[in-house]
Amino acid sequence: MATTEPVSDIVKRIGNPQEGDTDAVIREFLATFTAKELRSACKIYHVKVRSKNSKLDNKIGYENVLVQLARSRRESEEAARDERDKRRSEQVAAGSVSTRKTKHCCFRLLNVLFSDRFVDQLGLMGARPTRRELDAGAVRGRNSFWKDVAAEFIKELPEYGRLVTADSRFDGTDPSHIVPHAGEKLQQIWKEATTKFATAHARATQSGTHEPDFYDFCSGQLEPLYINAWLTVRPQAFDAAVGSMPKSTCLDTLTSDDTESKKVEKSDETALGKRRRAETNEVITYLETRFGSHEFS
Length: 297
Fold this sequence. Notes:
Elements: H1 4-15, H2 23-30, H3 35-44, H4 59-94, H5 105-113, H6 131-135, H7 144-153, H8 183-204, H9 222-231, H10 238-242, H11 247-252, H12 256-291
Helix pairs in contact: 1-3, 2-4, 3-4, 5-8, 5-9, 7-8, 8-9
Region (Disordered): 76-95, 253-278
């Protein structure tokens, strides 16, 4: 008898299409299971494959059945998603959907930007527009990158609606909540979030800092903490995450202890200078007394 776990894996995979799925991808996945496991999965979908004259009662037959089931499920979900996207676009055009930013929007945007599709393009966001883009008005949020992000932002894909971390501090956050935004607005949300992260990171990396929890440097804000969680998965995006930080931010993040430390160092340097001048004056006085002042005037 087939074990329960492999059969459950098959059923879950067939019933939950993933982005990029094709018949070939599904068939390759199914090839790793035994004939008994594939047959058990077919039974769960109420497909009769065992009969005297059935040509499906073998491993290849079971695979063919499950590939067809996966394709049907995939096509059904794609059609439903296209219909929802079309309906939402019509509602936005008619002004019947609120586009006011919610507390969930930033986290959904971060899921989109750190996804496989966009993570390698993050470094291009700060690039200056070309002459052609300027002539076409493709500046700020109206360039092709942010148009693509805005289009992706409203797609009901599972990976955009899940949290990347199980941290309980995000329990009230729901990235699956979709509010349509223009590319320019999403760019603004990204810049605000990365500025918060850069500030927190500057605090966390100061000399003498030993707090183990990055949240201690986030001033109670969850956005920088979520970016930090994503960077454990996508470390290659670190430069983009701190790229929006103004140069003055590092100065603004200095703590009072650091400021006091600099004052003490400056005071020590001043005292050392005074001491050296006093020692020099003593030597000159001695020489004048010993040999006469005309030699050193």
